[in-house]
Amino acid sequence: MTSRRTFLEQSAQLAAGALAAGAVTVETSEAQTQPPVAPKKKLHILMRSSWGTDEPTRASFVFSHGVALAEAGHEVQIFLTHDATYLMRKATVDMVKPIGWPPLSETMAKVVAKRIQVFS
Of the chain's two ends, which shows fewer C-beta atoms within 10 Å, N or C? Predict the structure, then answer.
């Protein structure tokens, strides 16, 4: 004769197995019947920065984030104000080395390759 404890353990295992089997069949049937995902909307983004060479890490953020957004398929434009306008000079860009990020010269090469417009 089966004890009450054994009966409850076996019924819990059977219930868990039934739930798992049901979840697998639901997931596979839903995956087969779902319509294809619509393409994401392309955004038009204008980014502004006024950080210059006195804060090299912050100065590079606008360019790094602009490249990331352009790689995601969005249209990006960068607008530089105040101290950031000095970053339009190649000699200045070559000197900027942000902490924890690639040198600004590498990021600017990607900005040019992605044809991101930069205004100052």
Answer: N
